[in-house]
Amino acid sequence: MTPTFPDITISTDRLVLRPFEEGDVPALADMMNDELVIAWTSVPQPYTVHHAREWATRAAPAERTEGRGIVFAVTEFLTQRLVGSVHLRNTNWRCRSAEVGYVTAPWARGEGYASEGLRAVAQWLFQHQGFERLELRTAADNTASQQVAQKTGCISEGVLRNAWIARTRTEDGGWADIRTDLIVWSLLPEDLDDLAEESAAGGGRGAYADWN
Fold this sequence. Notes:
The chain has helices spanning 25-32, 35-40, 49-65, 113-129, 143-152, 189-201; strands at 10-12, 15-18, 70-76, 82-92, 97-104, 133-139, 155-169, 175-187, 208-211. By secondary structure, it is an alpha+beta fold. A nine-stranded mixed sheet has the order 7-8-6-5-4-3-2-1-9, with helices on both faces. Helix 1 crosses helix 3 and helix 4 packs across helix 5. The longest helix has 17 residues, at 49-65. It starts with 9 loop residues before the first strand and ends with a strand. Residues 15-171 form the N-acetyltransferase domain. It comes from Streptomyces lycii. This is GNAT family N-acetyltransferase.
């Protein structure tokens, strides 16, 4: 039998991370058409409502049921508005490791939502799923994503040269592919423990609460 992650919801101080639903489709399409998302990811462009519905209702659930990973829709606790997504993928069940990717809606950036959601997923993965490594890859010029990695406690391990295709705006308003390096980051259980101790020493409040 193929191992799979449980179908769960994770709650933090400000967020609810849950499976995608049909009702998320319009907000998902808007989010994935943002210029920064297009530039740093491989999503189709333009990203249509059809793409969003296919992801929310079929492809994302299949990531979990087929054992490849799990996809969380990240929503505000108070408003239930979609603020982003966290995606565990390339899961190695024998090594108990996975790769993570995340996207944040343009209106929600600068609020710390990406790092809060990522920490919550990492804590759940390490403490309740017995995983030992979480890997993250960021494009060399994607400083915002690198800041999220650092705030979460990730350690930079090195550079994969010329390993990714990003996109850049052309003079006519279109998009052109460009090759770029990838920075490899990792997060281990002890890294997250160290971050929690630093936060407690500084009087910080825990970002993650519970899951069910």
